[in-house]
Amino acid sequence: MTDIRRRRRSDHPFRELFDIDAVRAQLRIMGEDYLAHPVGGGISLRTRAAKYLKGIYQDGQKVAERWLMEDGSGRRCAERLSRLHDEIIALVHEMVVSVLYPVDNPSTAERMEIIAIGGYGRGLMAPGSDTDILFLLPYKQTAWGESVAEAMLYVLWDMGLKVGHATRSVDECIRQARADMTIRTSLLEARRVVGTGSLYDELTRRFDKEVVEGTAVEFVAAKLAEREERLKRGGQSRYVVEPNVKDGKGGLRDLHTLFWIAKYVYRVRETRELVAKGVFTAEESVIFRRCEDFLWSVRCHLHFLAGKAEERLSFDVQRDMAERLGYTAHPGLRDVERFMKHYFLVAKDVGDLTAIVSAALEERHDKPVPRLNRMIARLRSSPRRTLKESRDFIVDHDRINIADPEAYNRDPVNLIRLFHLADRHELAFHPDAIRLATRSLKLIDQKVREDAEANKLFLEVLCSRKTPEIVLRRMNETGVLGRFVPEFGKVVAMMQFNMYHSYTVDEHLIRSIGTLTEIERGDRPELGLAIELMGQIKNRQLLYVAVFLHDIAKGRPEDHSIAGAKVARRLCPRFGLSHADTDTVAWLIEQHLTMSTIAQSRDLSDRKTIENFAAVVQNLERMKLLLILTTADIRAVGPGVWNNWKSQLLRTLYHETEPVITGGFSESNRNQRVARAQREFRGAISGWDEAPLERYMALHYPSYWLRVDLDHKLDHARFILEAEAEGRALATTSQTDQARGVTELTVLAPDHPKLLAVIAGACAAAGANIVDAQITTTTDGRALDTISLTRSFDQDADEIRRAERISASIEKSLSGEIKLPEVVARRLPKRPRAFTVEPEVTLNNAWSNRHTVIEVSGLDRPGLLYGLTQTLSRLNLNIASAHVATFGERAVDVFYVTDLMGAKIVGAARHSAIRRALLHVLDAEDEAESAKAG
């Protein structure tokens, strides 16, 4: 029965949204009432009609949403919504010209046709799309035409529709289309909604003859440049984890651009016609329609869910979207992750279609032949020639291409050799070679995967000193990489549903290789110690393999580090690595999070921390490799994640551990490193006399000089000097960090056990979310704490004013002017959460010789740190040091504590009580409850 009903709706997908005859009859009654009692100059009729039609329109949208949930067709939903607008506009026009501005004997000038343009002209609309219409006239505007257009617009606006409009004659349309590419594009999709069609026919005929003819190259260049600029604004990767469905790379706008170009160049009205033109194969035409239907489904669902024209698939809607679209969880992958993986695979297909159309345009000479890849700096001009390494490949306009269509069938290893030769000769890829490679993926079978030459060529690509990131990305986009390394294929387009990772797993791995190349070249000083160590390692190949495989087992039920090590033990021998190198790669993958975790969440001045880490790494070579891998991993997570602070922490951990694992011998012992850091500081600071400088440097313990980066040391010195000059025992300062997207707040105050809780509470009361904290104590008993807060404003001036308000709140809190628990409870709102993080509390007495280490992990929120520190205070625990880190939505806060007598916390009952109290904070229904508990 359901199938019959859906088929019937497919045959008549438009009229059923509402009963048009009943609505027309009701509008006729309104018109007759108005003509019988014409008051208000037509305003009363317009108001009544708008109110009535608004209800009809809203009911129609609800029906469209219901049918979308039933049949799942996004394109059909978009068609229905477009037709809904058609019918509404036609009804409004009929009422206006028959009641308000009737013309018994219309002159030639008193003709008007209403044309849908832009996206509306395409006949596809999302629930929140703009309605772009053109009032088309034969000549210039008349009083009658102006009145009709104005009356119609008032009704449509009063209905709540977002109407973009223009009133032009046919001549004006042609003149403006010649001069303006945006107008030309909107007219390209013009469609008649109201009128006899004579003006529309004249417009389309003249548009083809006077605007389109002979201008294909100009139009294609403009549309591709427009696309490039759009993607530059939104970020070039199609694998960002909160994609824009409309304007993002691989989104609907890319499909629209393809269709505009195809329609303009090939003069077609449907994409399926491109098969006859030789642009698409029948299969590729089906892929286009499938991508379009999926993206329209996502966009329509997104608009319905948000209740507005929302185009970004943000984290807070992804879970609901997955449920609406019918995705279910699989072992290792949640429903939302399966939905987003499908989204990114579709985005990849859109990219493939773009390349296909570009290749076809080049063959027609409607698109200029591209330069070499933008990442390759030098340009060169080469004649068409065969490559000496293989007669199966030629160079055509500095792009590698196959010599004939049988090249891959003749030798399937050529599917790997294509990328190897492109890397070796720094060649761009010819679209024909890529397109045929995508169609030939089935040739990569187990025999090819185990072929010694194929693996040798792949390893050389992976470990290339040129641009392996670019070549691997192209290899991935064709599907060759996932087919040759099936384990990698499983993480292609895999999204991790968290706020920490900005890219899909495959994109993150490829970007990690790019970062490793930057480290090896040494052209990124901010990558710190990794650059110094890269030249010291004995085998660079195993490092590249480890970086490539470090997240290869994401999406499995088992811990991905352990499962990844198992994958490495299978793959490395296939790649040609020795048994010893395979063991090292597997170890690196299993431990790839260890160094980052210890550096960011442990007390590096605690001897036990260093001893424990040394027991893991065991030798200096492994520690060097692990630091480089950790640097590449963090840098490739997303913009702003890597920073000088993390670089300095890794450097400190490395140098503190080095003498332990070398048996006491150190290339640079601790005292020497402290002295070197102090000399660096002396050289950078200016305007200080020797005596004050010596006094200032004596304020800081050795760990400060090793743990804090130079920029922050200089900022701290100037801040403390200014505070002392003004006689302030309590002082605050702030600065923005655009790269990290945070604002740093530094507090100088007399140290006491509740200081961190007070600072955290003041931040929470102001609605500020703490994402990082550097806690430092001076030798004269003061605390120097630097807190990183999530930004609230784009403009620095606005953000600084916000920081000043928070600073004032901190100072008032510390001076006792405000009572924090009451303020926090009153000001923190209850907010919906897109994420869930399993709360964990661990107490460990083996991580420190002097302290009990409490590690708390849970969903981050404003007020969390305040709740935790308040709870520790109520439990009569002294916080010796705190290490606050945030990984997207997951907060990991580590506290080194003692009891009031300075001893470790012992006893199972005491541990259980602490754990329960902290879990209560993590499990609090909202921030206010947590604050009240404090």
Automatic annotation (TrEMBL):
Molecular function, one GO term: [protein-PII] uridylyltransferase activity
Pfam families the UniProt entry points to: ACT (PF01842), GlnD_UR_UTase (PF08335), HD (PF01966)
SMART domains: HDc (SM00471)
Alphabetical keyword list: Hydrolase, Magnesium, Multifunctional enzyme, Nucleotidyltransferase, Repeat, Transferase
Catalytic activity: [protein-PII]-L-tyrosine + UTP = [protein-PII]-uridylyl-L-tyrosine + diphosphate; [protein-PII]-uridylyl-L-tyrosine + H2O = [protein-PII]-L-tyrosine + UMP + H(+)
UniProt note on regulation of activity: Uridylyltransferase (UTase) activity is inhibited by glutamine, while glutamine activates uridylyl-removing (UR) activity.
Extent of the signal sequence: none
Cofactor: Mg(2+)
CDD domains on file: ACT_ACR-UUR-like_2 (cd04899), ACT_UUR-like_1 (cd04900), HDc (cd00077), NT_GlnE_GlnD_like (cd05401)
Family in the record: Belongs to the GlnD family.
Function of the molecule: Modifies, by uridylylation and deuridylylation, the PII regulatory proteins (GlnB and homologs), in response to the nitrogen status of the cell that GlnD senses through the glutamine level. Under low glutamine levels, catalyzes the conversion of the PII proteins and UTP to PII-UMP and PPi, while under higher glutamine levels, GlnD hydrolyzes PII-UMP to PII and UMP (deuridylylation). Thus, controls uridylylation state and activity of the PII proteins, and plays an important role in the regulation of nitrogen metabolism.
NCBIfam families noted in UniProt: PRK05092.1 (NF003467), UTase_glnD (TIGR01693)
Identification of the protein by name: Bifunctional uridylyltransferase/uridylyl-removing enzyme
